[in-house]
Amino acid sequence: MKLVRLVLAGLLWQTTLAVAAPVKVEVDRKTVRLNESFQITFSTTEDPDGNPDFRPLEKEFEIIDRNHGTNSTWINGTSSTTIQWTFDVMAKHAGKVTIPALHFGSETSPALAITVTEGAAKPDVADNDADLFLEVEATPKQGYVQSQILYTVRIYTRVKIADGKLAEPEVADAVVTKLGEDKNYSTQVKGTEYVVVERNYAIFPQKSGTLTIPPLTLTAGIFADDQGGLGGFFGARTARTERVSSKPITLNILPAPASFKGHWLAAEQLELKQAWSGDVQNMKVGEPLTRTLTLTAKGTTVGQLPKLYQSASSEDLKSYPDQPKLDEQKTSQGIVAVREEKIAFIPSKAGTYTLPALEIPWFNVQSQKIEFAQIPAVTVTATGEGKVAEPNLAPAVDKSVEKPVNKAAVTYSPSAVSPDAGAGNSFLWQGLAGFFAFGWLATLIVFFRPWKKVTKVVPEKNPDMTPDIKKACANHDANGAKLALIAWGKQEYNAATLGAIADFCHAGLRDEILELNRILYGKHRREWDGGKLFQAFSEHQAMEKAKVKPEDDKLEPLHRLG
Questions:
Q1: Residues 215-272: tens digit of each pLDDT
Q2: CATH label, 132-254, candidates 1.10.150.130, 2.60.40.10, 2.40.50.140, 3.30.1360.170
Q3: CATH class, 20-117 region
Q4: CB 552, CB 498: distance < 8 Å
Q5: Domain map of the chain by residue range?
Q6: Does 455 have pLDDT greater than 50?
């Protein structure tokens, strides 16, 4: 009996350990400067079975502040709880610094490495007593055409400011996209405490050669007393105005390597994968089986991802692609672009079919090498007897690529045909004979009708709508922007509604047009900021301009979004 109790106690102890919730550790930035504060957050979904020991943190970090809290939610009858410990810290030295693994009772948090840089003291300001200054940096300093350049802007202030207005970067022959939300933290410069607002951008050069990012200008009101603060950065009354500028940055942009063949795609990481809705070895004649192809790329835009769909051109295996699903995730670390395509395959005859291998060449900007994302050839088997009628489906039109389909790409091995197939074909030919007889009669009627002469109208040259769109956006005139966009959409795409125009545009402009549409026709009208739409419009125009000049850098034109 004593032995049984010991065994049960051991099993209970192991079960308790098995269900213990893991502890996660996160930081708000993985690269920080010396004497610059950042946050470390430990979180778990259950109370630890022992008091956490945070003393090992003090070896590498100075703890400025700490907070402990619990957040509980109740969604659709299910409750969830998150317990967090948040620390504001500063690293004690530069280099690779590791947040050590900490004990939370029986659980241990994972170790996490960060990079601490020495940093330059006020790199853009000669006056060591400046109350307000800008710092900018771009990485890498040498990149490739259409590859991602990360551009970071930091506002340093040791005074209370309001009415801050920071100009957006405007770079010729490049697409500029803002990344994520602004960050706020504190740091020390030569012993002086500063509050920092950090903003990040992704820049995609469209031409090789020297690229200059011009200086940015910050205009801010300075409080003369203790009223206001950083929280009033965008609206409080001020006593005086101060204007500061950053330094320009010059980058060297390289063309695509001569050895690269195919559609130029430069990225930091690329992943291609597939999934099927059922068993590819047990397809049913007349029933659809869906293949999902997903291409995920870090460090590029969704408009640069190539088309994935390859037609199953066999007469007995039809393919019906859906509209591609496009997504861009914008974080301070850059853009992650995702293209997802779903293709339904329907066999009309039993047999074995081979879908060709899918291979996408891309240039890894980190390793400086040409790589290939691949999916091997797929063999599918359809079972069933006879030949079924072809479904009344229309394949989606993908505007991304206008390349011809290789109809020899799919091989087919027919299986034995059912003896009843001949009877079905007899009915089919009888129906076709009747159909063609009716068509011949209709042709005779049309032939003997009197014809009217049609005069071809040559349209006049369309005016440039860019100034109208820019003016409406600058005045934050939502209705004026709608009218200008519709006029532009009719010229460019023969589209007469905002929703229809959005379908032809790159991701950034598409999202801003749809947001304008929601503001105009939503239940609750609200103020509209036209600056974002015109920035997205300019980016779209830059991409389109790059597409019509394929001789520049010998690049393939950017794909239009599907």
A1: 998 888 777 654 444 444 444 444 567 788 899 999 999 999 999 998 899 999 999 9
A2: 2.60.40.10
A3: mainly beta
A4: no
A5: 20-117, 132-254, 267-418, 466-554
A6: no
In whole angstroms, give the CA distance from residue 240 to residue 238: 6
Short-list 202, 177, 354, 203, CA closest to 281: 354
- Output the CA torsion sign for 334, 504, 544, 320: positive
Total residues belonging to the chain: 562
- Do 108 and 79 contact (CB within 8 A), yes or no? no
Number of other CB atoms surrounding residue 403 within 10 Å: 9
Amino acid identity, position 150: L
* CB-based contact 35:187 (threshold 8 Å): yes
Identical fold between 20-117 and 132-254: yes
Q: Identify the residue whose tokens are 């060709």.
A: 356
Assessment of whether the complete model's pTM goes beyond 0.85: no
Q: Is the peptide bond before 356 cis (omega within 30 degrees of 0)?
A: no
Rounded to whole angstroms, how far apart are CA atoms 156 and 134? 6
Q: Which residue has the tokens 């410990």?
A: 85
Please give the DSSP secondary-structure letter assigned to residue 316. Answer: T
Place of tokens 């835009």: 301
Alpha-carbon 330 to chain mean position: 6
Question: Which residues, other chains included, contact 122 with Cβ-Cβ below 8 Å and sequence gap of 6+?
Answer: 128, 130, 133, 135, 156, 189, 190
